[in-house]
Amino acid sequence: MPSPTSSGAITSVLQETRVFPPPAEFARAAHVSSLEQYQELWNRAKDDPEGFWAEQAGRLISWFKPWDRVLDWNPPFAKWFEGALVNASYNCVDRHCEGPNKNKAALIWEGEPGDRRVLRYQDLQREVARFANVLKGLGVRKGDVVALYLPMIPELVVAALACARIGAPHTVVFGGFSAEALAGRIQDCKAKVLVTADGGYRRGKVVPLKENADGAAAVCPTLQHVVVYRRTGLDVAWSHGRDHWWHELEANASAVCPPEPVDSEHPLFILYTSGSTGKPKGILHTTGGYLVGTALTTQWVFDIKDDDTYWCTADVGWVTGHSYLVYGPLALGATCVMFEGAPNWPDEGRFWKIIEDYRVTILYTAPTAIRAFMKWGEQFPRRHDLSSLRLLGSVGEPINPEAWMWYHKVIGGGRCPVVDTWWQTETGAIMISPLPGATPTVPGSATRPLPGIVPEVVTKDGTPVGVNEGGFLIVKQPWPSMLRTIYGDDDRYKAQYWSDIPGSYFTGDGARRDENGNFWIMGRVDDVLNVAGHRLSTMEVESALVSHRAVAEAAVVGKPDDLKGQAIAAFVTLESGYAASEELRKELRNHVVKEIGALARPDDIHFTDALPKTRSGKIMRRLLRDIAAGVESGGDTSTLEDLSVMVRLRRFEQKAG
Ligand code: PRX
Predict the structure, then answer these.
(1) Binding site annotation covers 205?
(2) How many angstroms separate the CA atoms of 206 and 548, rounded?
(3) Which of 575, 598, 611, 624 has its CA 20 to 30 A from that of 354?
């Protein structure tokens, strides 16, 4: 583990003193409405976690059978609500159809070409039950994994909930990933069925999802069926026997499919995310605890009420979409806006038009989008009536105070609290965040841990650091929505999260806590990059680069980027017989896109004749980070095997510059 002070990434010099107390009117009506109430809840949960979580579980989720035991903690393996029977699809759909909400809009959807659909809870129930029967008809049984590789259309939500209905864990693969990346995930979880579409729209173009799915299916022997939703009308290749049109299968499917009661610990989904190795890991979430965590945080952090129109802009391919577009808000019977496309297509006003058109009250988006909006200018939001908004959320990376202030002022009109929510794929739900009616907010800080969550900032040996000192962010107690393991690899789960600081969950993030008890997240301290809110490992991009015949060695580091937070810089040595050229640089970029997806395209590729290494052969990324960022290396180079490498790299940079 690197030291928290040797990494520039977590040496915070931020001195932010602006404080925004919750607006009185907001606080009066909020679920948690004062700092005292928050503190009481937090203390209560700390003193009696099982009592606290049992109360939340009973209040928020419908169980077919109650649990025998709240928590079985056999570190680092947790079982929550053991013995209980539950179903996520029942909680997100059916139970809302039993009362006055059956005609309430569950999903308000807008496609990129401007097509619109509204699915009421009753519609969602019918669609989910039908598709669950389709899956059953293809032989999917409880426990079988189903891969979903779809655009942002309602069918993605329908398919996920249909899987949950029959106890088939889903693995959603973001539509921006390549055929190779999709194949790797299908192979790892041995999915039997893949659900995709002919294509999806993005910035006026059609993303050829079926073509990628075909590429993946060709190398995935476990895959028996591919279900294809017709979205764009694009011509697609067809494998008879394997491929089926969604609409044809659905035409013959019954709309009655009782939700299958599953054990609270039954797998709900596997979501792949980047760690510090070349291979993404399958984060496993189970049913009962995950539902409790996402429903509770949706209620408290987003303060959702029955009449809200809530919009989480994230793609369901990421954990934010899972927890805060699908499971959390639908468990609470909320009305969710869902959109297909991009923030700047057909123009830079897309978000603001959606907010105006649907009278969105709560917006949850990412700092990278906010920084892009700032760059595009205030004229776009100013053209629209944003007065329906009452709460703003941010997620995915640290939000710089300038972006926070812009969001608060220009989008929120100065009246909407901003909740900066810190969490991870692994944590399943929000961990550190203001509660908008209770917590005074400070631009750039995620503020305080939610009730039931006990984080701490510590040194390498687990000792708590002092006020305002940087250290490693850990979580000390298990929580219901925590990952249960890395799919198929308990040892890696233990080693990755629970061995650096024994007995605690290590997040991979650096942080400090200020004199008011507010947490400031300072970014990753491992080899994980955060590029425009997308998580990538340096090793993953390196593996993609070295799989090209011209590349001998590659080292990838992040460099600061005003818009994306981090950009990708690659240092590459070439096999003999290959020479550096602009053409090769382009080819390598395209190669990475093919191996992983456009989100991993390197911004800079530096050709070099050697990489700076320690005597034991480890690449000194710290030095490369400095070169990529164009700053002088202040750090120690005494362990460098060959000092002249640095001199040559710098000289090369000057020439290139
Ligand atoms: O470094 C933290 C950053 O995103 C990482 C988790 O990425 P992922 O699993 O893809 O989940 C993103 C959506 C929850 C964290 O380790 N991160 C996430 N939210 C914040 C953040 N960094 C600072 N502030 C945040 N609010």
Answers:
(1) yes
(2) 27
(3) 598
Please indicate whether residue 396, judged by its CB atom, sits closer than 6 Å to ligand 1.
Answer: yes
Parse the chain into domains and list their residue ranges.
34-342+417-451+458-511, 532-655
- Interface pTM (ipTM) of the complex? 1.00
* Residue 320 annotated as binding site: yes
29-82 tens-digit pLDDT: 999 999 999 999 999 999 999 999 999 999 999 999 999 999 999 999 999 999
Say if residue 548 carries a ligand binding annotation.
Answer: yes
HEC profile of 471-538: EEEEECCCCCCCCCEECCCHHHHHHHHCCCCCCCEEEEEEEEECCCCCEEEEEECCCEEEECCEEEEH
Query: Closest ligand 1 atom to the C-alpha of 420?
Result: 26
Write the residue with the smallest CA distance to atom 11 of ligand 1.
424
Cα 64 to averaged position of ligand 1 atoms, centre (Å)? 34
What is the CATH topology of the domain spanning 34-342+417-451+458-511? Rossmann fold (3.40.50)
- pLDDT of 356 > 70? The answer is yes
| CB 509 near ligand 1, within 6 Å | yes
Q: Residue 634: what pLDDT? A: 63
H or E element that contains 626: helix 621-629
Residue with CA closest to ligand 1 atom 23: 398
Q: Which residue has the tokens 């059916």?
A: 94
Q: Is the CB of 423 under 6 A from ligand 1?
A: yes
Residue 221: the pLDDT is 95
Instruction: Supply the residue whose CA is at minimum distance from atom 7 of ligand 1.
Output: 424
Give CATH for domain 532-655.
Answer: 3.30.300.30
243 marked among binding-site residues: no
